[in-house]
Amino acid sequence: MAQPHKLFWKGSDYDFVVFIEDSNLVQKYKDIVSIYKVFINRQGGVEGVLDEASKSELANEFGSSDVDSIIKKILVEGTDKKSAGSFHSGESGKNDSMGAGEVAH
């Protein structure tokens, strides 16, 4: 079974991630979004701990908290970071810039 892809949005304060099933079908975003939420990485980048972005975090970055329009923007303008691997929201993970098992504080 293929792993979902992460679409990445480099934000001014935080980085945001949307999961998709097939990068070849980005134009058909309504049918491919794996998890209909926008996630935030407070440590920066696409790897590490991802939490669901709050409405205020979305509004601060995108000028709106409308998940539909934000997902569309990330799908159209975001960067595909290939395979999403395992999705573990709120759990510590490996930060490649810091080494295995270490988490920035």
TrEMBL record:
Domain annotation Ribosome maturation protein SDO1/SBDS N-terminal: ranges: 5-84
Pfam families associated with the record: SBDS_N
Gene3D superfamilies reported in the protein's UniProt record: Ribosome maturation protein SBDS, N-terminal domain
Chain spans, region Disordered: 81-105
SUPFAM superfamilies from the UniProt entry: FYSH domain (SSF89895)
Protein name as annotated: Ribosome maturation protein SDO1/SBDS N-terminal domain-containing protein
